[in-house]
Amino acid sequence: MLLRHTTTEIKDRTALTVNPAKTCQPIGAMYAALGIHGCMPHSHGSQGCYAYHRSALTRHYKEPVIAATSAFTEGASVFGGQANLMQAIDNIFSVYNPDVIAVHTTCLSETIGDDIPQIVNKAMAEGRVPAGKYVIHANTPSYAGSHITGFAGMTKAMVDYFAETASARTKTVNLIPGFVEPSDMAEIRRMAAEMGLETIMFPDTSGVLNGPMTGKYRMYPPGGVTVEALRRTGSSLGTVALGHLASGDAARALDVKCKVPCQILDLPIGLGATDRFVDTLHRMAGVNVPDSLTFERGQMVDIIADMHQYFYNKRVGLVGDPDQLLALTKFLVSLDMAPVYLVTGTSAGKKFEKHLRAAVAGVPHEVQIKVGGDMHLFHQWIKQAPVDLLIGNSYVKYIAHDEDIPYVRHGFPILDRVGHSYFPTVGYRGGMRLLEKILDALLDRKDRDATDITFELVM
Ligand code: SF4
């Protein structure tokens, strides 16, 4: 029993988090920055933060994650980090030659109150930023928000720094994919391309954090949105933003700055959400839904119809980031499953909680929801009344192990398996993969627990 100290009795806790269900803002900002082609993320703080953020991303994506740091010592902690950042900008452009340096702050530099735009302006005035190169920033103090708000902040910075207003509109559609896997980003782009659309996706980590092994190290892999494409987002026909928390701010900022209308949707996880995504593209761009997507949709419906009896009324516990949690919950409800315990570590607000409660309104079980909660509470709920399936990141494996519950890995971080960065869980194809994973977990358990008499060949 790895979590043997978890008690069944629940006591009110307001100032203590045990086994958090989130991580810190700069990780999300760093991930988003890697979705710009030729970008060096820069952590304005101490080396410890930067090392942790890089290692968290490296362990999840199994790829070397590049970043730089202001390397605060005692002096910078007292007098501020301006001198460190100025020196860093000099060094990074001369040694690593990126197109963009994307600076995010940390708890320490935020507590000091370093003014990043002022420092960057000073660096530019002193000629430390070469012509045609850029330094952008996002404020990411980790005592507020989570990796999701950090991702949202850096994605919005791409709009604030680069989007340009144009007199004429193009036929391009902007896609803001949310904090999803590189494989999901590629799948979202593929579906739009199937519909004949020209798109700009930002950020776009496909090809950056799931590239092939070539035997040759490239600091800036071919993937990622270019600065030139980011500039053109301001003249696009419209923006489809996926995930309210991770993508909403950037979409609204683009609307305000360049008058590009936006539609903010759930992540396209599951049949209904993918239908809404496809329908939105169809309406926004006036294009038809091709037979190829209708075919994939039909395959997904076929799996659901064939295997519905195994989904029906299964009690599920989910831990995840808000956008994933909401979309997954709706998907499970549509399968007639019963998501009964829902936890996200990110404080996503009352509106989010309202949407989550509405999603489970028809579930014929008592449902527990905690927004801004932790995995300790989640575990206590399970101890009080068990579930048939757990869905969450790698930290959920401790609960699955102790309570002997089938478990599907989904979300961030996944540290003990591969596949997530190569195979999507969004769209119809991704939905089929998710169905397969859920069925595998449930049916493997059914096989394991079967007696000689109940053991079935055909299921
Ligand atoms: S929580 Fe703050 S101090 Fe800790 S690693 Fe994250 S940014 Fe650094």
Order of helices and strands: HEHEHHEHHEHEHEHEHEHHEHEHEHEHEH
Write the CATH homologous superfamily of the largest domain: Nitrogenase molybdenum iron protein domain
State the share of residues found in helices, binned by percent.
40-55%
How would you characterize the largest beta sheet? 5 strands, parallel
Catalogue the unreliable spans: none
Number of strands: 13
- Spatial gap, N to C terminus: 32 Å
β-sheet strand percentage: 5-15%
Q: How many domains comprise the coordinates? A: 3
Number of helices: 17
Overall structural class, as computed from helix and strand content, comes to: alpha/beta
Strands side by side in the biggest sheet? 11-10-9-12-13
CATH architecture level-2 label of the largest domain: 3-Layer(aba) Sandwich
Rg on CA atoms, Å:
23 Å
CATH top level assignment of the largest domain? Alpha Beta
CATH topology of the largest domain: Rossmann fold
The set of bound ligands, ions and cofactors reads:
iron/sulfur cluster
User: Can you give the mean pLDDT?
Assistant: 97
The backbone outline, from C-alpha atoms, is globular
- Chain oligomer state: single chain
Quick summary:
The chain is of the alpha/beta class. Helices cover 46% and strands 13% of the residues.
Structure description:
The chain has helices spanning 25-33, 47-61, 74-79, 82-95, 107-112, 116-125, 147-162, 182-194, 227-232, 244-258, 271-285, 291-311, 322-334, 350-359, 375-384, 397-403, 427-449, and strands spanning 39-44, 68-69, 100-105, 134-138, 173-176, 199-201, 238-242, 262-265, 315-319, 338-344, 368-371, 389-392, 407-409. With 459 residues, it is of the alpha/beta class. It has three domains: 25-150, Nitrogenase molybdenum iron protein domain (Rossmann fold); 173-292, Rossmann fold; 300-449, 3-Layer(aba) Sandwich (Rossmann fold), CATH 3.40.50. A five-stranded parallel sheet has the order 11-10-9-12-13, sandwiched between helices. The chain has a four-stranded parallel sheet with strand order 2-1-3-4, sandwiched between helices. A four-stranded parallel sheet has the order 6-5-7-8, with helices on both faces. The radius of gyration is 23 Å and the shape is globular. The protein starts with 24 loop residues before the first helix and ends in a 10-residue tail after the last helix. The mean pLDDT is 97. Bound molecules: iron/sulfur cluster. Iron/sulfur cluster binds at residues 24, 26, 49, 52, 106-107, 142. Iron/sulfur cluster (SF4) is lined by residues 24, 26, 49, 52, 106-107, 142.
